[in-house]
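User: Hi! I'm a student and our assignment asks us to look at how structure tokens line up with a sequence. Could you show me two examples?

Assistant: Happy to help. In each example below, the sequence comes first and the structure tokens follow. Example one:
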Amino acid sequence: MNYSEAMNIALLESLGRQTPILAFGQNIGAGSHLSGLTRGINDVVECEVFNTPNCENAEIGFGFGLMLEGAKCIFIVKQQDFLLLGLDQLVNTANVAVGGEGMGSFTVAFVTVDSGYEGPQSRLNQFAEICSLSGQPGYTVSSRQEAEFILGHQVGAPGFRMIGFSQRLFREEVIHVPDARLLDAESGATCFVEAGGVVIVACNFALPQALLLAERLRDVRNLACSVVSVPRVDSPMSESLAKYLSIHEKVAVLDDSHSRMGAGRLLVSEAVGRLCDASSIALFDRSGRSRDITPNGDAFEVPLQSVVEKLML
């Protein structure tokens, strides 16, 4: 099963548990169904589907209005870039709409174009900045377990949240580890591999790179590494995760977003001093990379030697 199929199944199952819920967005019930993400949504009995034109600011305001009336709804957006068109609602309307009594549910779900530069409006991979501006929770989904847990617990739940999917992973085999262990329900932190005194923490959509790095460290350096994925973007550190990290000697944090202050950097800043000294934790992200203005693969790679040197392994 590929990533797109797994996300589609988890999304439809989460919608099917709500009675009733409105799903709206451009081409979610027609055409390509957002490259298969929403395929079959018209068959979900409990879900009313509304195909909309391109007017993100109005549609996000519409969602907040429904939430204030006690209704459940989800706005599914073609790509993260288009959230910029609704920033007024995400920042100012959210500020006054979220937190009241008798509140319904509003979820904004979107696809991150992280598969390479495809144009000036098809490259945004900076979810942390959007969460920071809005002051609202955000989650990324990199695996089947995360899709089932996050969509299952967030879609239809009271209040507002944003959930991001990765276009880069759409045609890849979905990551599924049957014995993966949930560490923290609030952040969705999940342990996919448990071994050794080194832990690799994946933020944004860096779980595939984290698993590959653990495999290479095992094969080349004979080091057993644990691997943890943290879906929460705005507040990645939790007491449960802090306790888990504290029992490891070394921590490598991977963040494949383009954010200047992404989940990985937030996590490291909280960990240093509180859990460990600066020499036992290292961040591997895209800092220092120039802004993309031409077509490219946008690959995020973590050199093995860099990890060995930074963590003195």
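Example two works the same way, sequence first and then tokens:
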Amino acid sequence: MTTFKHPLANMAEQIERVGLAVLENVTDMPVYGEPYISPYLVIALNHSGWLRAEYDMHPVEFRRHETAIIFPNHILYAHEVSPDYRATLLVISARFLEYIKQMHPAHYHVEYHYNTSFKLNGFQFDSIYTCFRLLNSISQLKHPKRDELMAEQMDILADMTETFIRENGAMTLQDEQPVQQLLSRFHRAIAIHYRESREVRFYAEQLCLSPKYFGRVIRQTTGIGAGEWIARYVIIQSKYLLRQHPEMTIQQISDELGFSDQTAFTRYFRTYTQITPKEYRELKKIEN
């Protein structure tokens, strides 16, 4: 299946300008057939149906009366949705997320590793949905303190969501085992440093571990080597730029990704995809 114009893409300018957007009656996913990396924090409520996907290459399913939390810079790969799937999405830009963290740091240290969706009872679901609608109303205000008001409401939502999730028995990253915490820190390090380095040793040093131990733990935990995790992230970002930014030349994309030159980028891309960046871009033009 190919990329199509999703409501999230239509709202991108508003999300960046205002800081957040609420998307009602979403019935599909932005991208099929390929993994992608969202720059946003997305909190979703499923009103009906189901969605099957992979989150950081781990299978997940999003069902009716669940909330899903997708953190920025993680790998999402949508597979299929049911015909009756309908969701509401709260989408927060990276810029506004940082602003919220500065205003209200208490609730933004929590991550839910692999467990991205959580069952809610009727009261919990309706409470979160009410917060969504209030945030949507505040976001449309022309008021000098709009950002502060949105941040206050986001803090209430974060506290409420964390409380509901814990009441329902879900574990946060802080509750999980050290190995799982290591994997999450590795994902975060890739998102920050993938332009700077693609070497396993670099990431082991970032996490204060020996490369040998680090590589063994990642492979034993995920079944995938640390080098492949890094490469997949770089390739997904490469494909995004090639697909979504036709105005950028291959050289500009190479520079953006931190390669020494276009030849090095082409060689790297072909190693992991069996085609060149130019061939990939042409293929996507034909599909669309």
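Here is something you could point out in your write-up. The mean pLDDT is 87.
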